[in-house]
Specification:
about 40% helix, about 15% strand, about 325 residues, eight-stranded parallel β-barrel, 8 strands, 2 domains, globular, alpha/beta, 12 helices, single chain
Length: about 325
């Protein structure tokens, strides 16, 4: 049984590069990623997700930076000497070439997380079992839980309980879940995957990412996703600089994170938008994927037409399809 099974105190997994890359097409400089690792290690953050371990053979690159298609040798060039902070990567179903995954002892990665929708849980578990056999810590992140019927979720969780996965994630993909619902989901997960550690990944559409993460902690969740300055797709994620001091754990140091924000993130947010806006809030309220709001915010003429967006998202004819 891996060491993750014995950890009960909250653990922060920073996904600035991976989720933040959805904002800027993973256009992070090598200096940025090195500085981020140093700051997180100095801050006591346990994991840094350095990107996606997807294959360019299976997914169009569209000019994406190297953090979209991680190469183990490249990671070593960027971070030649690891500190206490471990490295993780995320893979998507159908986008990872299993031949690209080295045994853990040959890779700088410690944790590989598998993201999938509920219908693909069996395929996700196949990947989990492979990565586990190669020695990696593993997680299964079930996306878009706010669109999943409870009976379907329970059936999937029962299958997950029989697998080798270490951590199972409650994921609020659309930033549409309230704290009381997070608590309900966590208790449901605890009931049906009692041998697994739990994680939570929140989005800040309704400015509830921190509250939802802390509610998950209150119910016993261990792995907490966050990103520096909240950088992530659309409304962004729970802020690393907020969750670290909120946990009241002396091992976390806030100052290095603030240094990272001051050196890199303030200027970046002037170039790329993420964080709370009315369209993203409306997407969360109506439990919709933020793609329509993201398109609106990218328009020079319509980006602040909030009433028109409200009318559109509430229209039966034009409301986006469920993901």
């Amino acid at each position: 049984m891996k060491e993750t099974k014995n950890r009960k105190e909250p653990i922060i997994l920073d996904c600035t590069v991976r989720d933040g890359g959805l904002v800027n097409n993973w256009d992070f400089s090598e200096e940025f990623v090195r500085d981020l690792y140093r700051c997180l290690d100095a801050a006591g953050v346990e994991y840094m997700e350095i990107g996606y371990k997807n294959s360019p053979k299976l997914l169009k690159s569209d000019g994406a930076g190297p953090w979209r298609f991680l190469d183990d040798a490249y990671i070593r060039d960027i971070i030649p000497q690891k500190g206490r902070t471990k490295l993780s990567a995320l893979v998507d179903i159908g986008r990872v070439d299993e031949k690209d995954i080295l045994p853990r002892e040959e890779s700088p990665l410690d944790l590989i997380r598998v993201a999938c929708y509920i219908k693909d849980v069996p395929k996700g578990l196949e990947l989990v079992n492979l990565f586990s056999s190669l020695g990696y810590e593993t997680s299964l992140n079930i996306m878009a839980l706010s669109h999943v019927m409870e009976a379907e979720l329970v059936e999937a969780l029962q299958e997950i309980e029989q697998s080798s996965v270490d951590v199972v994630y409650v994921v609020d993909s659309f930033g549409s879940i309230y704290p009381q619902h997070i608590g309900y989901l966590v208790e449901l997960f605890k009931k049906h995957v009692p041998s697994k550690l739990l994680g939570v990944h929140t989005h800040n559409n309704m400015q509830l990412a921190l509250a939802n993460t802390l509610e998950a902690v209150r119910h016993g969740v261990t792995y907490l996703d966050a990103s520096v300055y909240g950088m992530g797709r659309a409304a962004g994620n729970c802020h690393t600089e907020l969750i670290a001091p909120a946990l009241r754990n002396k091992r976390y140091e806030l100052r290095p994170i603030l240094e990272m924000i001051e050196k890199h993130m303030v200027a970046m947010r002037k170039e790329w938008e993420w964080g709370y806006t009315i369209p993203y809030a409306l997407s969360g309220m109506f439990n919709e994927h933020p793609r329509m709001a993201m398109a609106m915010r990218s328009s020079e003429t319509d980006r602040d037409n909030y009433v028109a967006f409200y009318d559109r998202i509430t229209s039966v004819e034009t409301a986006p399809a469920k993901a």
